[in-house]
Amino acid sequence: MGRPALPVGWLLVSLSNLSASLLLLSVLAAAPMGLGMEVMAPATINALNGSSVKLSCTFNSCYKVENKQFSLNWTYQECRNCSEELFLQFRMKIMNKQLDRFGNRVEFTGNPTKYDVSFTLKNVQLEDEGTYNCYVLNPPDRHRGHASISLKVLTKEPPKHDSTVAVIVGASVGGFLAVVILVLMVVKCVRRKKQQRLNTDDQKTEEEGKTDGEGNPDEGTK
Fold first, then answer.
1. Across all residues in the chain, what is the average pLDDT?
2. Integer Cα distance of 137 and 70 in angstroms
């Protein structure tokens, strides 16, 4: 008796999860030490018309979040070439800009101190489709991180599929890769902080050299 054939959907989901995880690993491993934080968000989110949906955005940083320095912007783009509309901002505290298109349907559900800047959009409308941009800056990181989400609004629920096996395999692979990514982030943070200390020491040495070179102007007249 031969082995039962694996469902095509299971293979596609597993390969898709593995490919995405490996791509993230390669980006983290190859990223220059001078770059800022990594901001992560799903590329696409599907939401049922009239429901509430969480638009998840998280980030990695080598530094603790300080409210006085940390900043966050969420913007909306109706189309690819449309201008961005600011609707949610963090400057010392969360500020909801309450655009007419959203009204009071936007609720900040993240926690910056836990590197989570997600928000929930309530009573999703067909007009809410578009691109949502998440911008994060956490000094001393010098570069602002960015991720974008394409929101698709559905008028009816998609058919359900049994993906139990795919979920189990995906969770196993994802768990292993999460450990590897964590190790890479720790190494990256250690190297970045070490490089910053070296740059600071070099700057101090250079300043001390200039001071010694100038000498005391009264000594030459003695």
1. 77
2. 6
